[in-house]
Amino acid sequence: MKHLLLLLTVLCCIACTPQSTYRTDSGRVFGTYYKVIYLAPNNLHAGIKEAMQKVNASLSTFDSTSIISRVNQNDTTVVADSLFTLVFTTAQQVSRQTNGAFDITVAPLVNAWGFGFDPTRTRSQGMLDSLKACVGYQKIQLENAKITKQQPCVQLDASAIAKGLGCDVVASYLESQGVQHYLIDIGGEMRLKGVNNQYKHWRIGVQQPTEDSILVSNQVAAILSVSNVGVATSGNYRQFYYQDGKKISHTIDPRTATPCNHNLLSTTVIAPTTMLADAYATAFMVLGDKDSIETIANANGLAVYLLYAQSDSIQSVYNTSFEPYLLK
Questions:
Q1: Of 93-97, 123-127, 236-240, 253-257, which has the strongest mean pLDDT?
Q2: 3-state SS assignment for residue 66
Q3: Which contacts (CB < 8 Å, 24+ apart) does range 18-23 have?
Q4: How many Cα neighbours within 13 Å face the side chain of 276?
Q5: Torsion angle (degrees, nearest 10) of CA 26, 51, 60, 265
Q6: Which residues neighbour 292 within 8 Å (Cβ) at sequence distance 6 or greater?
Q7: What are phi and psi for residue 239, nearest 5 degrees?
Q8: 196-325 adopts what CATH topology?
Q9: Does pLDDT of 239 surpass 50?
Q10: ∠ CA 86-289-155 to the nearest 5 degrees?
């Protein structure tokens, strides 16, 4: 009788155990969309949103109470949290490795060209020259959770790395809940692990950009089969405007104080974390097609895919690390 009761108890527990299923949660965050697909017995959307809100509270320049906003306001009492510290140290590392092509102190220039948290589209060469004194990753330091600046006008813009961090933070939360299969997409930046509902690596497409168009074409330049990596794509074909007949791109070169003007249309980077992929994707867009092609040959730990305009066609090039991800 005891054995029968024990068996019935076990069967009841199994019957009450929620079945894991692939779930999809979506919404808006950081001024863009997000979508998270994950295999779990319970809905985890509340925890996912909480994880993203932590990133927002640390790194949103549109929230006046965030840590990065308080740094920009020269609040001497602000103390960096772990997310701000991680982003800052990673950004400085990428800045050094790309000779300043990536630089989170670019905020004054991004604002001056109309793409930042305090945008304007009226500027003079004198104004841009004066802003150069406010830009440079060497002009700001973080030590013992405190920020020091060489100039009070130095301001930070983490938009080229924060979405990637958001993907990583959500991934960390999901894994803390035992989730081992997921796709996290925040504004096109992705973190992926495990397999999809067809028990295959996640399949994602790299869109074929259309030069001088606010839209991307319906064509796919490449299909990737990926897992256990972060993926980020940066391009100059979505965010831009025309002024006096000239195309003004949202990618600003912090070294020249001007929008990038070259043939590179998009760059896709695969890295161990989405934060790294996000930062390097931006750095390559600043470097341009020629310098990026030279650089990707030595991009240790990164898989890089470039699409650039040449004559009347769009060409592609990638390093050997990228080839295993291409779905033939």
A1: 93-97
A2: coil
A3: 18/42, 22/181, 22/196, 22/197
A4: 14
A5: -50
A6: 264, 267, 284, 304, 306
A7: -105, 105
A8: T-fold (3.10.520)
A9: yes
A10: 35
Tokens of 310: 């040449």
Q: Give the pLDDT score at 16.
A: 40
Is there a contact between 322 and 292 (Cβ–Cβ < 8 Å)?
Answer: no
Beta bridge mates, 310: 313
The residue extents of the domains of the chain are 196-325
> E-strand spans in the chain?
21-29, 32-40, 140-143, 146-149, 182-186, 189-193, 202-209, 216-226, 229-235, 240-243, 246-249, 252-253, 258-259, 264-271, 303-310, 313-318
Residue found by looking up tokens 């070169």 in the block: 253
Return d(Cα 262, Cα 291) in angstroms, integer. 11
- Among candidates 196, 188, 231, which has minimal Cα distance to 38? 196
Q: For residue 214, what pLDDT is reported?
A: 44
Sign of CA dihedral 300, 305, 308, 310: positive
DSSP string, 148-217: EESSTT-----HHHHHHHHHHHHHHHHHHTT---EEEEETTEEEEES--TTSS-EEEEEEEE-TT-SSEE
